[in-house]
Amino acid sequence: MIAMKILAFSDLHDEEAALDSLEKLAPSYDRIFICGDITHSRSFAESVIKSLPNSLIIPGNWDSRIVNDYLSEKSQWLHERRVELGSGLNAVGFGFSPPTPFYTFGEIGEDEIYSRMSRLPIDRNTLLLLHCPPKGHFDLVHLIRRIGSASILKIIEEKKPLAAFFGHVHEHMGTEKFGPTELIKLPPANSMRAASVTIVDKRITTEFISL
Q1: 163: which of 72, 88, 182, 197 is 20 to 30 A away, CA to CA?
Q2: Would you say 185 and 167 are in contact if contact means Cβ atoms under 8 Å apart?
Q3: 211 to each of 59, 129, 138, 154, 162, how far by Cα in Å?
Q4: Domain ranges of the chain
């Protein structure tokens, strides 16, 4: 049996101490999944690329245009792309979020999210990297408002990826099954937390770790 080990996190938000810890952990993993909200600064983005060369990256809503332009030229960029991972698995990425009260750069409407994601080659062997949660799953803010994406939920229902990784809502972390798909809500890395994920024969085990 071949095991794949993935270090996954979201919402780094320029936290240098977290990046230092992630860099130390990275050699023990086959891949690093970075699910958006990394930085406003190109220099910090450069540090992420240098520190985590075996990463796959998607944008969040908070990352700046300058950062997205820089990262989109790198081989690690996964937004609206697919990468074969081996062991019959692939990774597909889609970043951004629906509109927020903060008018951040990476916000798009639900219709556009659905239209663009519908064209992606997502299948039952896909590890789907997202920034925003699917509507109704790990997306409750201040116990009163859900900010997940209805379009992402619909795509997961239709295409049934093996797993979906996402961040965005800092208040939550955890896993749950949604049909055949394993939902993995990543903790915010700027709180010095990440997820350690092991996949063996398409069986997924997730441990939330301190950085």
Answers
A1: 72
A2: yes
A3: 22, 21, 22, 33, 26
A4: 3-210
| pTM exceeds 0.85 | yes
* Cα 211 off chain centre by: 18
C-beta separation of 51 from 39 below 8 A: no
CA dist list (Å): 30 to 2, 5, 25 = 12, 5, 11
Q: What is the CA radius of gyration of the chain?
A: 15
In the β-sheet with 3-9, what is the strand arrangement from edge to edge?
55-58, 31-35, 3-9, 193-200, 203-210
Q: Is 100 exposed, middle or buried (0-12, 13-18, 19+ CB in 10 A)?
A: middle
Question: Residue 125 CA to chain centroid, in angstroms?
Answer: 17
Q: How does pLDDT run across 10-51, given as a tens digit for each residue?
A: 999 999 999 999 999 999 999 999 999 999 999 999 999 999
Class of 3-210 per CATH? alpha beta
Place of tokens 């095991």: 3
